[in-house]
Amino acid sequence: MKILAIETSCDETAAAVVEKQKSGLIRVLGEAVASSEAMHIKTGGIVPEVAAREQVVSIIPVIQETLKQTINHASNSVSQDQSELTNWSKANLDAIAVTQGPGLIGSLLVGVETAKTIAWSWNKPLIPVNHLLGHIYANWIEKLEQKPDGQSQPLFPLLCLIVSGGHTELVLMKDHHDYMIIGGTRDDAAGECFDKCARILGLPYPGGPHISKLATNMSGTHKHPDWQSLPRPLLHEDTLDMSFSGLKAAFVRQVKHLSQDNHLNQHTKQILAADLETAIAEVLSKKVSMALDSFNPKSFLLAGGVAANPTLRNHLEGVCQSHQIPFFKPPQKYCIDNAVMIGAAAIYRHKTINPVQLKVNPGLHL
Ligand code: KG4
Ligand code: ZN
C-alpha cells in the first residue's frame, strides 16, 4: 500500500510517499519539505499569517518533488513531466493522507484543501490524521542506518511520551486503535518552555536546539555566588501531571537577576541553558519512570520535536535500562514535523472520509 501524505500544521510544508514493509516498518519512497522557519527568526516566534502564506507558495512544488523522487526510486528514470507524475500517481497510489489538526488554522487549511482536491480528482481514499498520532508513529519508520531485518518494532501495550512545541503528553496504547492519555502538562509544553527561555537569552526560534547547543558547549560549572538551581516542578508529587510555566518564570527571574548584577555573559548563559535542559529532562524522565512502574508496558516510545534533545534521550535511556524495557525513538530527522510520520499513522489507523466532508480541526485532541 503506497500513501501520499501531506503535513502542513505549522511552519513546515511536507509531503512523502510511504509504504509498509513485511516487517511492519514504514519505508520512505520519496519526500520533500520546505520550511518558513527562517522568516520567523526575525519575529522570535511563528507569525501564523506568514506561515500560512508560505504554505500556499510551497505546497504544490513540495508534492511535485516528492512524486518525482518516488517515481525515480521506482523506475530509475528521471521524470519531470507533470502529466507523467499524475498518471503514475493515479496508477500507483492507494490513498492520500493529511494532517487534520491540531495546529495553526491557516497552515492546516492549505494541506487539507490540497489533499481533498487531489483525492477527489484522482479518485483516491482520503485519510485524515491527528498530528500527535503522527509523532507517535514516527517510531515505526524504517531506520536507513540499520539493516531492516535487524530492526524491531514497538510492542503493545506501550507507553509514549510526546514532547513537542505545543504538547507534552504521556499516552498509554494497548493497541493501534486503543489508547488513553495518562498524564501531561497542566500549562506550557516542554518545547514551549525551551522556546520562550531561548527567546529571553536572545536566541533564534525554535529555541530548543539552540539551548541544547549552548548547554553542550558549557565550559565549566563555576556558578555565581547567589546562584540557585532552577526548580523541578512537581518532581516529587504523586501525579503524572507536569508543569513548565513556573520553570520558565524562574528562568526569566534568574536572567533578570544576572543582568542587573552585570553577570549575564556567555558562561552564565551556558550554565543556565544546561540547568534548564537538565530540569526538563529530570521532570520528564521521573514521570516516565512513575508511569512505567504503574502500567508495566512492553515498550517505551519517545516522540515530538523535543525528542531530538540528546540530554533527554540520555536520561530516558537510563530509565528504560533500569526498567529493562526497550526504548524506541525516531531518527532525529523524524522527531520534528514531517509527512512521513503522517503516512505511517495513516497506514496503521486508516479511517477514510469523503473529501467533501473533511474539515480542519486546529484544536484536535488525541
Ligand atoms: O514536533 P515539533 O516539530 O512541532 C510541534 O508539533 O510543536 O516540535 C517543535 C519543538 C520546538 O519547541 C523546538 O524548540 C523543539 O521541538 N526542539 C527541541 C530540539 N529540537 C526541536 N527542543 C530541545 N532540544 C532539541 N534538540
Ligand atoms: Zn509536531
Tell me briefly what this model is:
It contains 11 helices and 11 strands. It is α/β, with parallel strands linked by helices and 366 residues long.
Written overview of the protein:
There is one protein chain. This protein has helices at residues 37-41, 48-75, 82-92, 105-122, 131-137, 190-200, 207-216, 245-260, 266-295, 310-323, 340-348, and strands at residues 2-7, 12-20, 26-35, 95-101, 126-130, 158-163, 168-175, 178-185, 241-242, 299-303, 327-328. The protein is an alpha/beta fold and 366 residues long. The strands form two sheets. It has a six-stranded mixed beta sheet, sandwiched between helices. α2 (48-75) crosses α3 (82-92) and α6 (190-200) runs parallel beside α8. The radius of gyration is 21 Å and the shape is globular. It starts with a strand and ends in an 18-residue tail after the last helix.
Give, in order, the helices and strands.
EEEHHHEHEHEEEHHEHHEHEH
Mean pLDDT: 93
Cofactors and ligands? 5'-O-[(R)-(carboxyoxy)(hydroxy)phosphoryl]adenosine, zinc ion
Principal-axes shape call: globular
Specify the number of helices.
Answer: 11
Distance between the amino and carboxyl termini: 25 Å
What is the number of beta strands?
Answer: 11
Class based on secondary structure composition and strand pairing:
alpha/beta
Q: Specify Rg, calculated over alpha carbons.
A: 21 Å
Strand order of the largest sheet: 9-8-7-6-10-11
How much β-strand is present in the residues?
15-25%
Uncertain regions: pLDDT < 50 for 5+ in a row?
A: none
Share of helix, binned? 40-55%
Note the main sheet: 6 strands, mixed
